[in-house]
Amino acid sequence: MRHVAVALAGIVALSGCSTLLTPSGSAATRWAKLDKSRAEAAKGPTGERKICKTMMTMGSNFPQKVCSTQAEWDQFNEEARKSADEFDAGRRAGNTNSEFEGN
Question: What's the pTM value of the predicted model, to 2 decimals?
Answer without folding.
Answer: 0.47
